[in-house]
Amino acid sequence: MLAELAIVPSAPLLVPELSGRDAAEVDEVRAAVLDAVRSLGGAARTWIAIGVDGPPRLFSAYGVDVPVTASSGRETPGRETSGRGTPDSGSDADPMPLAMLIACWCRGRADAPVELRRVLVDPDATRDEARRLGVDLAAAIAADPEPIGVLVVADGATALSPSAPGGGDRESAHRLQDVIDAAVAAGDVDELAALDPLACELDGVVARPVFAALAGLCADIDVDVDVRYAGAPYGVGYTVATWSPTSPVRARS
Description:
253 residues
């Protein structure tokens, strides 16, 4: 059953060894992420992490070798996938897409022994394909008698300040980020599923299909939402939130 869901950004700067001690701009978002993953660790000892596929890397590619693992004691490859999702089934020593590096880093800060199963979503997946992936995951989670936590790793728009990596400060990016933040804050899965692919491409929301998968996962679930952070340090939209089902979610008879 779904115990809790947390949404965090895929920002390497969350990792103190990568951002450095003087990067005060990320202190607030990092604290919010830590609060969210500790809450998730208290709710469930098995997590499914969902993030967009991408080039496999180690944290050393961002400046410092920071070891991470998906397991509290043994390798636990992620196999829950369908549609145009890809299982990340390599060992913990293998390079991983950035979203999974961040997911494994979060796992290690949960203040609890957590096993992490990893699911990658094709960045080119259509809305329907990504949403179907979420629907299938929801069915698998609901059929499991054990509490399952879901960690959604997703960034927003990348053009929210003059020096933003997406090419500066664009009004269209602000409008898109406002839609994402409002949908997350309201638990509005229809709005998340309806994100326009072209607008997301133009304003850097690479995680669009991850948001669509989230919409499928929670399509039939009412949630209480705790928004822990919404902002744009370095011009990228980062949203941190916890979604808690308002009643236990189990398989339908």
